[in-house]
């Protein structure tokens, strides 16, 4: 076991010691905030007050019960929110992947276009140089002929 | 030093697993208590026992949804 591995083990040990203390307490408090006698009593009080108001207002029992059921279901829609957030995560990941693919494709296209232009420019420069060289040579030959 | 670190890691993981099992086992009991308290308040305000039970069933539904979401997240679907 070298020094780096020793450090990793030590780090893992420290992380796990903190996680083992904090995570169970965190989950416990989250569960207690929803599923406890006190939370049930509070929710029951709110729903009962809602039901009583409806009954006092003269609504039939059946309607009052149905409306209270809808009122309570707002509380339980927490799980729906979690489901939706999960789906959005997946859709977000898909969209992110599509965007990155599109960006890389565009970048490649632009690079190819730019490189193509550069190559064309280089080729035309080379041709011009070659032509200039030939012209010079022709001029020299003509001068030599005239001298002769 | 090395053996002590490994033992400490094993103990920490065991502690986490033990706590999670305890939480899972007590969740049903907590839901039952919350349902009873919820029903009691509704019945106190004049709601029929049958209707109160119907409304408190939302707690069981929430618990099941929560457990399913956790299972899915463990499987790596989310």
Describe this structure in words.
The complex is a heterodimer of chains A (148) and B (78). By secondary structure, chain A is an all-alpha fold. In chain A, 93% of the residues lie in helices and 0% in strands. The relative contact order of chain A is 0.03. With 78 residues, chain B is mainly α. Chain B is built from two helices and no strands. Chain B has helices at residues 2-44, 49-75. Chain B starts with a helix and ends with a helix. The interface between A and B is large, with 49 and 46 residues.
Q: State the helix count of chain A.
A: 4
Mean pLDDT of chain A, to the nearest integer, reads: 78
Helix and strand sequence of chain A: HHHH
β-strand amount of chain B: under 5%
The helix content of chain B is over 70%
Mean pLDDT of chain B: 86
Name the overall outline of chain A. Answer: elongated
Pattern of helices and strands of chain B: HH
Annotation, overall tally of beta strands of chain A:
0
Shape of chain B: elongated
Number of helices of chain B: 2
Rounded radius of gyration of chain A (Å): 39 Å
- Span from first to last CA of chain A? 89 Å
Features:
heterodimer, A: 4 helices, B: 78 residues, mainly alpha, elongated
How do the helices and strands line up, and which of them pair or pack?
The complex is a heterodimer of chains A (148) and B (78).
Chain A: H1 3-34, H2 37-56, H3 61-76, H4 78-147
Helix pairs in contact in A: 2-3
Chain B: H1 2-44, H2 49-75
């Amino acid at each position: 076991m070298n020094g780096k591995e020793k450090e990793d083990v030590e780090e893992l040990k420290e992380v796990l010691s903190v996680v083992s203390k904090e995570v169970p307490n965190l989950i416990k408090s989250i569960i207690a905030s929803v599923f406890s006698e006190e939370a049930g009593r509070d929710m029951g009080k709110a729903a009962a007050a809602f039901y009583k108001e409806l009954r006092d207002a003269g609504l039939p029992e059946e309607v009052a019960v149905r409306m209270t059921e809808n009122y309570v279901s707002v509380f339980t829609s927490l799980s729906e929110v979690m489901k939706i957030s999960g789906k959005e995560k997946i859709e977000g990941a898909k969209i992110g992947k599509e965007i990155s693919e599109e960006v890389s494709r565009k970048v490649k296209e632009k690079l190819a276009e730019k490189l193509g232009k550069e190559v064309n420019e280089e080729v035309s420069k080379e041709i011009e140089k070659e032509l200039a060289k030939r012209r010079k040579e022709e001029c020299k030959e003509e001068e030599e002929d005239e001298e002769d | 030093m090395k053996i002590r670190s490994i033992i400490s890691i094993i103990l920490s993981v065991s502690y986490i697993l033990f706590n999670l099992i305890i939480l899972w086992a007590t969740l049903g009991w907590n839901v039952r208590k919350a349902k009873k308290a919820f029903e009691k308040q509704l019945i106190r305000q004049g709601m029929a026992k049958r209707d109160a039970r119907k409304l408190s069933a939302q707690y069981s539904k929430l618990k099941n949804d929560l457990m399913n979401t956790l299972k899915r997240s463990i499987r790596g679907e989310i």
